[in-house]
Amino acid sequence: MPNRCLQIAVRVMTRRHLDVILCSALILASVLILTLDGLALGGVETQLGSMLMPRVVATLIILFSLMIGLPSLRGLLQDRPLLPTEVIETEGLDGVMIYIVIFTAYWWALPILGFLVATPAVIFAVAVLLGGRSWLPMLSMSLITPTVIFYGCRELIRVYLPEWSF
Amino acid sequence: MFSNIFQGFVTVLSVGPLLGIMLGVCVGIVFGAIPGISAIMAIAIILPLTFYVDPIVGITMLLAVYKAGIYGGSISAILINTPGAAASFLTSLDGHALARSGKAGKALCMALYASVTGEMLATLVLIFVAAPISLISLQAGPIEKVWLLVFAFTVVGSMTGESVPRGLLSCCLGMMFAMVGMSSLTGAVRLTFGIPDLMSGFTFLPVLIGVLVMPEVIDAVRRRKTPHQDLVLKVSDQPADNRVSLREYRSVLGTIIKSSGIGTVVGALPGLGSSAAAFLAYGEAKRSSKAPEEFGKGSLHGIAAAESSNNAVCGSSMIPMLTLSIPGDDVTALLMGAFLIHGITPGPTIFYEHTDVIYAIFAGFLLVDLFLLVIARFGFPLWMRVASVPPYFIFPCVTVFAVVGAFTANQSLTDVMILMVFTLLGYGMRLVGLNPAAFIIGFILMPLLEQNLDQAVSIVGGDYLRMLSSPIGWIFIGLSVLSVVSAIRSNRRGRRRMAAFAAAE
């Protein structure tokens, strides 16, 4: 069901929609950079000032966003036929969402469960997501790889990966 | 210069650098040969490991991965008609045609010999041209450097993007993200929006891995239902079909030299890359061939042209980076990051401040070609087997290596979060046609622009028109305008072609 909803949502969405949304967000952020005071705190006074370059770049971002967003908006309003590059492929996006969820959970779990516990679960989950069904080799890889990385980092390059915090 | 090169060979001919080169070549071939994994992914994953070794070992290892990765792309292109790298697309036309007729061994050998010859020629150009160019660029002061950097931004932005505004927007976004955190010039904390973790800015490595590597993993997840094809090398009963004879090599040597020249020139220009070099060289080889009808149907000249030109780019793309501090594409941007992490700032002074390191790296560059020749030639069956590992064994490990790589930069989980954010950003950029390479180049070059602009403004005082008084500056302004105008014209032509194609459909 979520897969179906995602596909319907993305079928409606084209590159033109994304362009308009992205460019609006970038223009808004750039206007904030141009108008807000207090975006640079402290520092010494120089001829250029700390905010000159961010404001120059923000102006350029507005300019280029308009150059991208306006033709896309015009295309949407006039309902022009889509070019091949403006179609967004929907196939497989459900897997992308699951991957992002796994990745976020991994980041959240790392300081709590530690590298040696969280990583095998992530390796196994991503392998299953990618269509792996060779359970024994996948299980071995999930257990051996994190162990080698954990002790390799600790002993060879003195990088201490997160450990179980309970 | 020759004594420096000799000294470079003495330095690099020791256990550490040689092991680094061997490891780099093996990793590069394997990663390059796996469709969907590029050399850049291999370099980004190996990069954190190089922090803990000598710069000569670390950088030669990365260069070995780069060169072997570009060659490795031809293996899957020839055997299963799926280029491991975009630059190998043309190799697949002739190489796979030969493989279908039972001459896969001949096609692989030709690709290898052409790659190595092209790389060697370009490396020699790099060695003999880089130092003299750096002498000229040493004359440039901060004002000229500002215009040079403006030229770099415009040429990279306008050449690499799907369209000129998209390329330039990608570059500007990279520049904006580079300014977050404490300014190295004024000490002011900028654009952090009150988030203390951003005070030190975005760490380079998580940004790099997030924007360039992780979207490839996401792409693999998206294409997970595409059937996996094993690489199989069918050995012919006829020994002549499994190798390239000296006579055959001599017959294509002219094509190799000409294509290497094209690759070297294209590689030295920022923003074009190895795919453009391969297309130009292939077109020229076909145009000047006595049998153009054989191209695309198993021509050895076709393989030689495509492979020698795309590999020649590896050497010459280092020229603008080492002499002018301008990385021309994503791989050289990444290598420039590696140089900076090792405390070596690429630019004209590198030949005087780090003479021993730079010439050892040059010597390493040449040795990589020899190692690639031997390791690839005698290990074909092994590389086939390793590169046939299904994606569900590779990409979970790549995910973990990326997280570990991001973590090792500061041993902080904030960097893992930055990796996550930039992974989404990088994938989103691809969806809307923004260019990750232009983003990374903007991110790397912005601090240099700010530093040089600050110095230039100090020199001119309040008389800002003096910024336009330098003839060299005007040359770069002219080149910037030219690059944007020519990119707009070529994009317009491309759009017209696409619209005509869509109308015909």
UniProtKB/TrEMBL annotation, chain B:
Pfam families: TctA. The chain crosses the membrane at residues 6-32, 39-64, 70-90, 111-134, 146-164, 171-193, 199-218, 357-380, 392-409, 416-448, 468-488. PANTHER family: TRICARBOXYLIC TRANSPORT PROTEIN. It comes from Paracoccus fontiphilus. Keywords: Membrane, Transmembrane, Transmembrane helix. It comes from the Bacteria. Residues 18-441 form the DUF112 domain. This is Tripartite tricarboxylate transporter permease.
